[in-house]
Amino acid sequence: MAKLLVIAPYQGLHDLFYQVNKELNKDMEIQVGNLYKGLEIAKANEHKGFDVIISRGATARIIGEEVSIPVVDLDISGYDILRSLTLLKGYSGKIGIMSYLNVVQGADSIGALLGIDLTSFLIHNEEEIESAIKKAKENDIEVMIGDVISTSVAQRYGMHGILITSGREAVIEAIERAEQIAYYCNKTKETSRLNELAIQHANHGIIVTDENGYCKNVNEKAAYFLQTDQSNLLNHRVSERVPFLNLKNVLQSRKSESFKEIDFGVQQFDISKVPLEENGKVVGAVAFLYSSKEDKPKSTGRPSVHFNQLVANSDGIKKTMESARNITNSNMPTIIYGESGTGKTSLAQAIHNESDRSPFPFVLLDINELSVDKVYTELFGHEGKGSLFERANGGTVCLKGIDFLPSYIAAKLLSILHSKKIETLNGEIHFDVRVISILEKQPEFRDKNRSSLYRFLSGFSIKLPPLRERKDDIEDLIRWFIASINANLGKQIVGVTPATLKHFMEYDWPGNIAELHTAVQEMCFLSGGPFIEEATALEVMANLKEQQAANSYSSFDLSKTLEEIEADIIHKIMEEENHNQTKVAARLGINRTTLWRKLKFSENV
């Protein structure tokens, strides 16, 4: 029996191979890795006895060029194309498809049968994708159908990306071809000495150079740490692209070097530099990048959401989006209001991406998730670390939960934002950031410092309506959720039935877009056919309604006295906030002294 290695470019394909192999019972190992991550997996397994590798698209081509094991490229079948196009049937925007000749020709034919007008973008290699996407953007294409890399690039340019997911029939055919190749071919395996030595040492992020300091291999983790693309490093001198990673000393001295807690933008990591020797000669060097243990504020690095990807069909949300677009290049602080799950963070990302600040970092600090000491450290820095404003300099700081800030932190933050400078161990540093704050509703502050900060941050105000007030958007939201979930779960769902859609439109969605996404994901998981049927929707939505009903009942005994109910409320909030009295006092709108007094009183109630 052939020993097969499957490297799936996306999780859904991994799961589909797993399900098929439960029936076929082949000697098969399945892993997930796209592009160079897939190549890294292939290299790591090159000498483990596998006869054939199965992958798809660009990942299969990259692996085939670099490893000695035969590679089977999973074909995109007509059924795969049909499922993707059926999902878009009835969509009014401009649709493009990007792939190689055989796929584009098949899609054109199927699109004509379905009455879907497609604009084709033929490519011959991966290097053509970026320019083809730019051309599609100029032609006002809103949706791009294609493989993992083309849809990812399309999303980076603000389009919707629909991944052509592989179906069961294509997977079975690929396994049969792989077994045939394994039977008739007896390949001798060759080794790339430089990459093999690097892989033997690989731990986290890795950058490998030759003896002249030119980058010959870089993995995705290293590119993430350095906030760049792998292509920006490959075949360039590392010292020119990332000066502090200069490996010249290691190559000359043949001695390893280590550095702790390197701050680079919003990332922090440790570095080890190691010379690579073979037969007594230095043939290159490798830099290992390890994540530092201490938490960092959340950062999208390159926020992925653009205005074109935000569904806005209803009149109310169209006006909101227009207002948001109008202020993208303003430096005035902005507050985005909206119920939980309405997409406030996504809108903040879109504003950043549309602005002149888009080349610079977008840093999100969720104040609710951190202790008071940690919030203070992130905002103002401490020995060895810069403040959040230094790390986001030139870009956007997104503050979530400013209504939980203690008074003394609010006062210091206001002072710094007014002056646009901060004191550090190295002296006074000026910064330039735009601040976007996220709140569920307009707070009522009794404290002067927090009230003053809130007024300063309220330069512009944007209110996102709840989903129950923009139901015209539900159908398109479902469409894009299904497209994403298909890629993640290996499903081929093409839509919902009219009866199912009716139930979606009748429900109020108290959890808004986030709740809708969760529901669609669960329905896709439970669905066995191409459509989400009414029975599946009713099952999932019955659970939602039960949860909503349970949440609507108070957990407090209203037969108690007012003092007893107040004591119960205080103790419940204390549990929710892990007994952090500053956060509890902020939620109750009282100072800590008053809270302490009430806690003492409640002990006797």
TrEMBL record:
Coiled coil: none
UniProt xrefs under Gene3D superfamilies: 1.10.8.60, 3.40.50.2300, Homeodomain-like (1.10.10.60), P-loop containing nucleotide triphosphate hydrolases (3.40.50.300), PAS domain (3.30.450.20), PrpR receptor domain-like (3.40.50.10660)
Domain Sigma-54 factor interaction per the UniProt entry, residue ranges: 310-525
InterPro entries documented for this protein: AAA+_ATPase (IPR003593), AAA_lid_NorR (IPR058031), Homeodomain-like_sf (IPR009057), HTH_Fis (IPR002197), P-loop_NTPase (IPR027417), PAS-like_dom_sf (IPR035965), Sig_transdc_resp-reg_PrpR_N (IPR010524), Sigma_54_int (IPR002078)
Biological process (GO), any one: regulation of DNA-templated transcription
A molecular-function term among this protein's GO annotations: sequence-specific DNA binding
UniProt keyword annotation of Transcription present: yes
UniProt superkingdom: Bacteria
Keywords assigned: ATP-binding, Nucleotide-binding, Transcription, Transcription regulation
PROSITE patterns in the cross-refs: SIGMA54_INTERACT_4 (PS50045)
Designated name of the protein: AAA family ATPase
Organism, scientific name: Exobacillus caeni
